[in-house]
Specification:
223 residues, three-stranded antiparallel β-sheet, alpha/beta, single chain
Length: 223
C-alpha cells in the first residue's frame, strides 16, 4: 500500500497502534511517506486521523509499533524539522499577526527562521496589519496559523483540519498556497473531512476507518 520507491521515506510507520485505556484509536497502521509529496488523511470522526498526526508530530507515542522519520529519527528527536498545525489555532488573540510570529520565532534558538513579515506575505497577509488576531476572520486566522508552522522551514508539515470553519474561497486559496510549499523535498500531511478541497494537491489519499487503514491510493494532483 505504498507509493513508488524513492531515495528514502520521509516517514516510516510500522504496525502502529495507539490505545487510550481500552479504546484503540489506531490498529496496526503501516505506511511510508515520500519526500515532496502531499498525503491527505480522510475518515469519519474517531477514525484515528488526528491521533496519527499527533504521533508523527512527536506529541504522542504509539502503544505498539514504531515511527521513524528522516531515515531513522524518533519523532521526538526531529521536532525542529516538523511543523504541526493543530485544530486549535495556538495563537495569541491580543497580539497582531507579526507580533505572534516574532514570539514563536524565539522558540527556535539556533535555527534559521523566515522573517515574520516575509512568511506573512507568503501566506497572503499584510505584515503591517495593526489589527489583533481576535479581530481576524477565520480564514485570516488559519493563514496566520500556517505562517506559524512555516516559520522554521520544516521538512514535514502536518496540518490537522486546516480548512475547518473556512468558506470555500478561503479554503481554495489555502490549497493554492500549500501547492507552492509542497515543491522540493517538503512532505505535507493533511487531515480533513473535506476531501474534495484537498484533492488538487493530493498525491496520495489514506483513508482510515475505526483506526485501521481502509485504503491508501494515489491521488490526482492538479496544482
Amino acid at each position: 500500500m505504498n507509493g513508488p520507491a524513492s531515495a528514502g521515506p520521509c516517514a516510516r510507520i510500522d504496525n502502529v497502534s495507539k490505545l487510550f485505556g481500552t479504546f484503540a484509536a489506531l490498529r496496526g497502521v503501516t505506511a511510508e511517506l515520500e519526500p515532496g509529496k502531499c498525503y491527505v488523511l480522510v475518515g469519519e470522526n474517531g477514525a484515528g486521523k488526528s491521533t496519527l498526526l499527533r504521533i508523527l508530530a512527536g506529541l504522542l507515542r504509539p502503544s505498539m509499533g514504531t515511527v521513524k522519520l528522516f531515515g531513522g529519527q524518533e519523532p521526538q528527536e526531529a521536532r525542529e524539522r516538523i511543523g504541526y498545525m493543530s485544530h486549535a489555532p495556538m495563537l495569541y488573540d491580543e497580539l497582531t499577526g507579526q507580533e505572534n510570529l516574532r514570539y514563536f520565532a524565539k522558540l527556535y534558538p539556533g535555527r534559521q527562521c523566515i522573517e515574520p513579515a516575509e512568511v506573512l506575505r507568503q501566506v497572503g497577509l499584510d505584515p503591517e496589519l495593526t489589527r489583533t488576531l481576535g479581530q481576524y476572520s477565520q480564514g485570516m486566522r488559519q493563514r496566520t496559523s500556517l505562517a506559524r508552522v512555516l516559520l522554521s522551514m520544516p521538512e514535514l508539515l502536518l496540518l490537522d483540519e486546516p480548512f475547518s470553519n473556512m468558506d470555500v474561497e478561503s479554503a481554495t486559496q489555502m490549497v493554492r498556497l500549500l501547492a507552492q510549499f509542497r515543491h522540493g523535498s517538503r512532505t505535507i500531511v493533511i487531515t480533513t473531512h473535506q476531501r474534495e478541497l484537498a484533492a488538487p494537491i493530493a498525491d496520495y489519499v489514506l483513508a482510515l476507518k475505526a483506526g485501521r487503514v481502509a485504503s491508501f491510493e494515489p491521488g490526482s494532483p492538479r496544482l
